[in-house]
Amino acid sequence: MHESVAESSHISKIHHASTKEQNGVHESQHEKVLSVTADGIIQSPDFPNTYPRNTVIVWRLVAVTESSRIQLTFDPRFGLEDAEDGICKYDYVEVEEPVGGVVLGRWCGSEMVPGPQVSKGNQILIRFVSDDYFPSDPGFCIRYSLLQQSQSEPEAPAVMPAWMQSVDVLSEAVAGFSTMEEVMKYLEPERWQVDMEDLYKPTWQVVGKSFIHQKKSRGVVDLNLLREEVRLYSCTPRNFSVSLREELKRTDAIFWPSCLLVKRCGGNCACCSHNCYDCQCSTTKVAKKYHEVLMLKHRAGGRGLQKTLTDVPLEHHEECSCVCKNDSD
């Protein structure tokens, strides 16, 4: 079908020279382009039934004016093939900012419905991908609508990207996270899921011995376990053997057993803040616990030993923390 120059010139310049128009949708070999003038919907094929296998569809939504923004709202009925290890690898729907190729989110599974998404400019991309296996239902349905950008609306303060921060600031921020996912979200909030997946793709130019000898794969290697291993040797409550005579400062008695295990703070504080000169492992929560022991004391006048079972209080450390004790403190 032949299009007039006025209808197709703008679209063909941006996308593909060979396009056709049907029901207001410009279709090219690579993507479907929708001119957004009112509310509408985009959905996976056959929604709310099982979508087809081996499918790739890309929709480009273009608002009619530069000042317009596009809001996407997902239907509560949402279900694609489940993620593997928390990453949507196989079937997924993805929302992307065309300028810069920033991925706003990638979703799959059925446990959580994606929240609303708003474009930063007057365009937004939606990409649906399914592979050859395990198609699910109901798929997805997205309602799109126009938002008018207020000219007087104050701009949100710019947040410095992680890659622009100094090594010291970045190091201290990363050290505070407890999982690899939190680290990646901080470093690349727009595309952290993609980066997580890329981490486990072998690159032979830089791959280490761990890949060759341990058959490195996403299902075997969990970098979060490395942090757990570090925690075991860092400042934590651990078992210590203490002498009851020394602990209770009793020189007039003999105890059996003479030593008991108690929880005391121990381990290194090598991972303290970079600007701390003296970092010590200190207790932040203490509990007093009673232990039943046999106590022996000499009777008055040297007439044998007095034997009694008694409860002795011992201090146990339940929580520990690395405390900075600089010279100025």
From TrEMBL:
One of the GO BP terms on file: platelet-derived growth factor receptor signaling pathway
Highest taxon of source: Eukaryota
GO cellular component: extracellular space; membrane
Residues of the CUB domain: 30-147
MF (Gene Ontology): growth factor activity; platelet-derived growth factor receptor binding
PROSITE patterns, alphabetized: CUB, PDGF_2
Keywords, sorted A to Z: Cleavage on pair of basic residues, Developmental protein, Disulfide bond, Glycoprotein, Growth factor, Mitogen, Secreted, Signal
Platelet-derived growth factor (PDGF) family profile domain segment(s): 235-327
PANTHER family listed in its UniProt record: PLATELET-DERIVED GROWTH FACTOR, PLATELET-DERIVED GROWTH FACTOR C
Protein family per UniProt: Belongs to the PDGF/VEGF growth factor family.
Protein name: Platelet-derived growth factor C
Gene for this chain: pdgfc
